[in-house]
Amino acid sequence: RSEIIPKTKQLKVLNLKLSDAGIYTCEYGSHTVSISLHVFELTISSHGHFLPNEVPKLTLMQNSSKPLPDLSITLFNSNNNTVITKPLQNTRQKYILELKKLEATDSGTWMCHVHADSPLINQNIAFDVKVLGFQNPVLERKYATVDSTVILSWHLNFQKIIWKGGFTGQLNWKQHQNATPHELLDFNVTAWGVQHKTKKSSHFRFEIPESKSESTIELKLPKVHFNHSGQYQCQLVYNRRYAQNKIELVVMKVSANPVGPLPRGTKTTLICQVSSPLPPNAHLLWERVNGTQADVKKSTQNEAKVEVNVSAAGLWNCHLIEDNDMKISLRYPVEEAPVWISYAVTGASIGGSVLVFGLACLCIISGISWQRRRQRAKRMIRARQHLLENKTCQCQQ
């Protein structure tokens, strides 16, 4: 593993090991020159390949011919920021440091700075940290309206960090936190970055769109239903270790009670509803198009539904607003019923009242007649008994 460069008489040692540390002497005639070689060995757990929230361990070993110096070690991440470490072992020959929990954004080239006063050492050792994960936020919330089309996307970073190992994953859905999850699809990515997807469930209609990027997992709902809401979780598996990322789909719908055109003089209730309670920074808002401030109704905090009473025709909008940003909106037109329908409704109401009154009178008359017949029948029974008693007395005489 060594060679001498003829022109400069330099000694070149390849693939240094800790055991290569020591004193090297060069003799030339009566001249002797000695050089002390100090060797460091830096290793990182999992060969520098991690998933989010994992805690790496860094091991630094040193060897030299002289008594080993006490080292001061400082770590810098890929953004050149100092990393706080927890020392687990310090024996001068071997230092073990525990790092913080990693995030996908921690991927890159890190620097280990080694310092000692005697002998003077200022050595920088570079090493790579690769964190396979998602470029999405930890929990992303996506809003959709009933019957709309929505695409849910998870952006992986394996191409960005040049991840050379293969890994697998799956996409699950559950309607709420404690519900049973349903596997929708699974996928695998080869060591060359080629992605393969397989549909696993027909729980509801969805599609796997053709993605332009191999580092993106997508799910398409061509016609969103209210019960499509819930948590969609993408999970990565690498060397029996797991990483996951969730997208919460919130679906909004509008309706009226009663449904249909609004007859004159009547009212209807417009209902705007979302599939799950909203966060504190979001709310629902009913407003009438070209209406006044009185035609506005806002939901209370964490409320999943808001209602407004309407007595006239018009166009109403329900907005879902988060941090003063309108996320989605649905319209509901309230139409006025034709005049003949209003008359028919009025006539039906009057006719119904008359019918009820007539039925009540009929019931009263029938009750009186039945009572009279019952009393007449009782009198006839008593008269018959009286005659029978009189006839019996004459026979005895």
Name of the CATH architecture of the largest domain: Sandwich
So what's the overall shape?
elongated
CATH topology of the largest domain: Immunoglobulin-like
Q: Spans with pLDDT under 50 lasting ≥5 residues?
A: 340-345, 393-397
SSE topology string: EEEEEEEEEEEEEEEEEEEEEEEEEEEH
Round the Cα radius of gyration to an integer and report it: 42 Å
Structural class: mainly beta
What proportion strand?
Answer: over 45%
Fourth-level CATH superfamily of the largest domain: Immunoglobulins
Tally of individual helices: 1
Name some characteristics of this structure:
CD4 protein, mainly beta, 397 residues, Ig-like_fold, eight-stranded mixed beta sheet, Immunoglobulin-like, 3 domains, 15% helix, five-stranded mixed beta sheet, 1 helix, 46% strand
Characterise this structure.
It comes from Cepphus grylle (Black guillemot). The chain crosses the membrane at residues 340-370. This is CD4 protein. It holds the Pfam family Tcell_CD4_C. Keywords: Membrane, Transmembrane, Transmembrane helix. With 397 residues, this protein is mostly beta strands. The chain folds into 3 domains: 2-131, Immunoglobulins (Immunoglobulin-like), CATH 2.60.40.10; 140-251, Immunoglobulins (Immunoglobulin-like, Sandwich), CATH 2.60.40.10; 258-334, Immunoglobulins (Immunoglobulin-like, Sandwich). The chain is 15% helix and 46% strand. It contains 1 helix and 27 strands. Strands 14, 16, 17, 18, 20, 21, 22 and 25 form an 8-stranded mixed beta sheet that branches. A 5-stranded mixed beta sheet has the order 6-13-12-8-9, with no helix packed on it. The N and C termini lie far apart (156 Å). Mean pLDDT is 87; it is low at 340-345 and 393-397.
